[in-house]
Amino acid sequence: MIYRESGQYKTSYSADMAVFPLRQDRIGIFVIIALAYSMAFFGSNFMLQAVLIPFLIFSLAAMGLNLMVGYAGLLSLGTGAFMGVGAYACYKLMTIFPGVNVIVWILASGFFSAAIGVFFGLPSLRIKGFYLAVATLAAQFFLQWSFNRIPWLYNYNVSGAIEAPLRTLFGVPIVGPTATPEVRYVIVLTLVIFLTWIASNIVHGRVGRQWMAIRDMDIAAELMGIKLLQTKLLAFAVSSYYCGVAGAMMVFLWYGGAEYNVFNINQSFLILFMVIIGGLGSLIGSFLGAGLIFMLPIAMGIVLPAIFGPLGIRVGAETIEHLRFMILGALIIFFLIVEPHGLARLWQIAKQKLRVWPFPY
Amino acid sequence: MSANTTSAHSFATDAEIEKAARAEAAGAVPVAATDPEVLLAVENVSLSFGGVKALADVSFDIRKGEIRAIIGPNGAGKTSMLNCINGFYHPTEGRITFKGETRRKMRPYEAAAGGIARTFQNVALFKGMSTLDNIMAGRSLKMKRGFFWQILGFGPAVAEEVEHRRFVEDIIDFLQIQAIRKTPVGKLPYGLQKRVELGRALAMEPELLLLDEPMAGMNLEEKEDMSRFILDVNQHFGTTIALIEHDMGVVMDLSDRVVVLEYGRKIADGTPSVVKSDQKVIDAYLGVPH
Amino acid sequence: MTTVAVAREDTFPKLIARNARIRPDRTAFRHKDLGIWQSWTWGEVHQTVRAMAIGMHRLGLKRGDKIAIIGNNRPRLYWSIAAAQWIGVVPVPVYSDSVAEEMAFVLSHAEVVLAVVEDQEQVDKVLSIAEQVPTLTHLLYDEERGLRDYDHSTMHPLTAFIDEAKAATAADPELDALLGRELAESKGSDLAIILYTSGTTGRPKGVMLTYDNVIAAAQIGCDFDNLSENDEIIAYLPLAWVGDHIFSYAQAILAGLCVNCPESPETIVEDRREIGTTYAFAPPRVFENMLTLTMVRMEDAGPIMRSMFGFFIRHANKVGERILNKQSVGLWDRMLYTIGDFLVYSPLRNRFGLSNIKVGYTAGEAIGPEIFRFYRSIGVNLKQLYGQTEASVYVTMQPDGEIHADTVGRPAPGVEIKIDDNGEVLFRSAGVFQGYYKDDEKTAETKTVDGFVRSGDAGFFDANGHLKIIDRAKDVGKLNDGSLFPPKYVENKLKFYPNIKEVVAYGNGQDYVTCFVNIDLTAVGNWAERNNVIYGSYQELAQNPQVYEMIAGHVDEVNRSLATEPLMQGAQIKRFLILHKELDADDGELTRTQKVRRGFIADRYGPLVTALYDGSQEADIRTEVTFEDGRKGVIAARVKIRDMKLYDAPQPAMEKAA
Amino acid sequence: MNALYQIFIEPFIFMGEAPDLLIQTIWEGFVSGILYALIALGFVLIFKASGVFNFAQGIMVVFAALTLVGFYSMGIPAIISLILAIGVMFLLAVTVERVVLRPLVNQPDIILFMATFGITYFLIGLGEFIFGGEPKVMITSQLYLPEGRTNFDILGGFVTIQHIDVAAAVIAIIMIAVLGIFFSKTRIGRALRAVADSHKAALSVGISLNQIWVIVWFAAGIVALVTGIMWGARSDVSFALQIIALKALPVLILGGFTSIPGAIVGGLIIGIGEKIGEFYWGPLLGGGIETWLAYVIALIFLMFRPQGLFGEKIIERV
């Protein structure tokens, strides 16, 4: 309906292969980004701190996992741990080299989780599917343990936790207790946009194709000269990098501090669910999934009391938590059955409908 | 049944005309003769899973530029043979020499790098991807730009993409699948999927192209198109082709030489006419209506 | 400016040279090839055409030779036309889908020495008829696939051909000079092209057109719709059709607009959408197909979407055309239309690829009024024009604001029209052809001494001076009272009602007009279901009194409208009957192209015809029929006959109905 | 040097010095191994029959135990509660088959695997919703399970053995035996085995696939219930158990996904292995290595024998 494709023709391959070949899409994405930035000025502290910042960070983590599960078809249950690696790496780097700008370290911390990811990815040569999942569980538990039991990682704090020290950019505090949500939001947003752009370059290029190839038909892929191990390990590396960066951002740009059990297996599952519900093999899906699952409890916290309050039934926080688990579980099953490609597919369908409007196809 | 055989015949005849016509144009000499050089040699290859012997002491060769058919009843070990050739299985005995070099335990991607491409009996496309991406994936080996160029949305990696896109478009044009360029292959009818798979194999610019029943489950027109494409590939890109096919009509028209397998053993080898008249083959295969 | 230009540039090569001079970097041609729109600027086109001309010269082509152009719309084929014209060689485009012997006839009749073809298919076809065309010495082809192994002593791929020629020109300045001389030598009065009309009857005739003819005609269109270099047209109709030649070649070069060639016949719709053409020319069937496709698709749409669509289309029907014609429309209607435009019309135009259309023409045959109105009502400025190859297309056109579905408009600028006493339309204009190639006798038949051309169509000017084509002149009969009786015209009027499938009208040499009606089983069947009319067979339904009522209603309307038209009152239908069986090609009642064979049917149903004229109220008829499975059988029926009221004088009140 | 000594020599000296401790550790490991084995058994049952890798087995254990305790706390006699709990497990089996398995039939395994995550989360939520999150005490005595302990003096020291552990071992063994017989002797059992090979075969035995799924999930449910009782009796009934239950996964990797004996052996190896590891080597790493040791063992194992100890080799076809 809003699409006016007539008159949009491509005279070069680069134009034809663009991520957003349609003008309307380009405008749309631009508007969204503009709005996102404007939130820094119009968004309330609650909005930024409790909704947008975490949403973006989870989206990034989900994107990372999606690169692995959705694109390369490698199931991982260790996301939380890989995020942890990023967080702790970043913490160490920040404290060892306080001179260097923290944003550099946030981005650099990803490389450490990438390395760890590759290591735990090695079995993927021999094993697939849930075997691999178990292997990643090993990573999950081992790493979580080391966050707890290796004091060096948290500089021997008595608390055993890591806190974000004060760091500034052009004199403006961006990390630490005095950093305002606005500033942190802008940084998070910028980083997420940047990394999303990179991710889309990857998945739309040769590497992305190779990942999807081994996902869809690994035998054929290998017979076409795609080296399975290399390709899979690359997926592990990139995915873990994104999760690592997300982890670092989570601790230093959102929580302001964390303990080892922040990165427990439930974190891993939460993010996996974001990917499944958002849509395997779709970057947009990562955002949609993160949005839905992260917003769910917030929405329930607001909606349910509003409904049941008047009826004299008080809905406690824990009840909401329980309901959330049930709904999550139900959602997963629902999506796997009804739309295995998740919200992203629904999004696509909607888009397609708009393109062929008023025709059904 | 009768319909089937007749169709095979009618098809046979006009494809024969085709071949003849082209032979004239080409200068009347059968292709195989022009280049006797051997591209791939299979020597005493045996293959067994546990107790089961899939191949027993099979030897034959494929010459540069020829179309070589591998036929035989179901379970004769044809597909296993292909799997050995492109390194998916490793022969328990015997050796396979490709371009003069013998590799023990050749990995599939090594075979691919060496110039062996392959299509599958039951289409093995990347279901989640578009026709274009499937064929582009076939270019993987040729794309050299490193990962760090990839992550930039511009520069050499993109230039490379474009360059290979151009190549792929030629294939799309060649196979006349422009109309489905951007359709997810999962949505395509079987015949077209087979065509796309051929395209994906061609994208590798192979020296040896292995086709596993390229026309299985196709109707007559589709078969005619497909065999025309196969001939064109062989003629224009000089690609050597080894194909497994059940439709005897097709085999007899397309192939320069035929090797016949039965129960993992080779029972005949030679030009279609020779094979056709071989008693063992007639008993084992042609006699059996299919 | 063009007019001035034309004074100097009186041939297409000269015009191309001009374009290369005044707009070297404007895109001249696009071709969707290898997945993207390959583009060529006027500068490049000019260079290539020059090279091709040289190439042809080097092949030994001489002024006055003929070359055949065979294939789908490809830039290089258009350029080869220009290249030939450059060195005074006459191009002869040939329908690429014509069967071998037809092609053989044209090629040999035109004595072509060179054929420029699209691909292997055409090459094979030409080679298969080569010996019937002794003059043919060379073959150029555009698409190289599958041709590598052919004998290349006499055939050449266009690409290589062009490169060699370019190289040669670079090497030898003399050739360059030669190009200059050749260019200067051709004049507007020279023969520009021979277009063979795929004659419905008899052999194709080669219509000879000079540059002056074609340019004059093209000029009409360019001025009428002030075409400019910013316009886009998509070329997908046969090169050999005068329409394509004028619109995609002549006007393109004259106005410097951009010609877009689709990737393949299957992708035309997408390609048209991608380009978003501003100017279009197509026979009615193209628009018909688009509309049917639309309706079919909408059938599968959800109920809400369907009803919304239906609502707005109805609204468009009500006010759309008035709005397009800039007539006054109520504010509320206008608002509604604006909403509809957002929700339905402009999305539709977008899907059709007609979003940017300035004006679209339909010609060739009569377009169904409802189809015509549909496109106009959703804001596509579709116009009818009446044209002929012999006139280089333009005979009449519809000026803005004076567009009626049932007329083909006023005489085009610079065209004189007269109608002789038996209703045949004659025209005279600068575009009028020189004659039929090697067929003076036919030429004499068609062209009067004073330069008028017999169109072979019968028609008349209606109250507001618009020409109305009623039938082929030779089919137009006379009633005993001398009034005109155009069967097709009457039949078509009735056939525009969806309930009526076929009509066979009689009256020539009779006192009044009568007709057989075939009801449309699907349409009437639906109607029957809705009004729970039970029927066992077509025959039963056909004889159902209610159905008779309905059809009588239609006939009455037709009579009313006929009454309002000058010369047509006499053609009103006095009596009709509904045939007990569907007219069927298997029974020889229709041609294979579904045209009624009036004479044959008259004999076959003799008793009915007599009954129509002897005043009896019903008649018995036994006819042998061929069933689906090929069995023969006899069906007998008693067919009722209806008398109709006739309206004599045109009542002012009725004006609107027209 | 010193580190090497600490790793490779000291622990063994220690074992030698205090053999009773070693035995004690091994026994502990043995018992928890048994419980791992029981959970693994649940996995195997379902995997064999429906090819589904049931991630929810762990939570099923918790859920079963919770229902049992829950019913009892409503004042229902222990035995009745037990029966009711069994009933609930049957209900669960039916629901899962209807709601999850049937719609997802013929989907790739990985999808079904993920679906069981869904089941897991749903059950966690449901369990906490109904019974609340706080730990419960298992009704050991009411189910006539032995309590208390006995010390055996041996090797100049003593080994303490919880009676419940003995019971656990015994019951586990009985149950495994029963299952063994069920699989080899009964018609349904054979049918289940058939399903593992081919679904047609199963139908030929005259049991619909859906029935079979219900049966195996029910069986797995009962196994879960028993496991829950045993485990609950040793510690208490809490959702923490669900995480521990994940250790059944490495067990399966060792034992192979389709082999009951594999599950048992694997369970014991993991159980004993991690106890000894924790007790003798844990301190070197600051303790708590139990949480991952099992997985790392499995991981290393995967590299060399992906199909597990008793699983059959997978041959890929093109």
Note down, in words, how this protein is organized.
- The complex is a heterotetramer of chains A (361), B (290), C (658) and D (318).
- Helices cover 43% and strands 22% of the residues of chain B.
- Chain B is an alpha/beta fold.
- Chain B has two domains: 2-115 and 206-286, 3-Layer(aba) Sandwich (Rossmann fold), CATH 3.40.50; 127-205, no CATH class.
- In chain B, helix 1 runs parallel beside helix 9, helix 1 (2-26) packs parallel to helix 10 (248-254) and helix 7 (156-175) packs across helix 8.
- By secondary structure, chain C is an alpha/beta fold.
- Chain C folds into three domains: 2-280, 3-Layer(aba) Sandwich (Rossmann fold); 283-472, 3-Layer(aba) Sandwich (Rossmann fold); 476-657, ANL, C-terminal domain (GMP Synthetase, Chain A, domain 3, 2-Layer Sandwich).
- Chain C has 22 helices and 28 strands.
- In chain C, the strands form seven sheets. Chain C has a five-stranded parallel sheet, with helices on both faces. In chain C, strands 12-13-14-15-16 form a five-stranded mixed sheet. A five-stranded mixed sheet of chain C has the order 24-25-26-28-27, with helices on both faces.
- Chain D has two domains: 42-246, no CATH class; 251-309, no CATH class.
- The model of chain D has no long low-confidence stretch (mean pLDDT 82).
- The chains are: A mainly alpha (361), B alpha/beta (290), C alpha/beta (658), D mainly alpha (318).
Task: Specify which chain pair forms the largest interface.
Answer: A-D, 46 and 47 residues
Query: How do the strands line up in the largest sheet of chain A?
Result: 1-4
Average pLDDT over all residues of chain A: 91
What's the N-to-C terminus distance of chain C?
41 Å
Q: Beta-strand level of the residues of chain C, as a percent range? A: 15-25%
CATH class categorisation of the largest domain in chain C: Alpha Beta
Q: What is the percent of helical residues of chain C?
A: 40-55%
Number of strands of chain C: 28
Number of domains of chain C: 3
Radius of gyration of chain C: 27 Å
Which word captures the global form of chain C?
globular
Total number of helical segments of chain C?
Answer: 22
**Using only CA atoms, what is the Rg of chain A?**
21 Å
Q: Please outline the major beta sheet of chain A.
A: 2 strands, antiparallel
| Strand-residue proportion of chain A | under 5%
Low-pLDDT runs of 5+ residues of chain A are none
Q: How far is it from the N-terminal to the C-terminal residue of chain A, by CA?
A: 13 Å
SSE arrangement of chain A, N to C: HHHHHHEEEHHHEHHHH
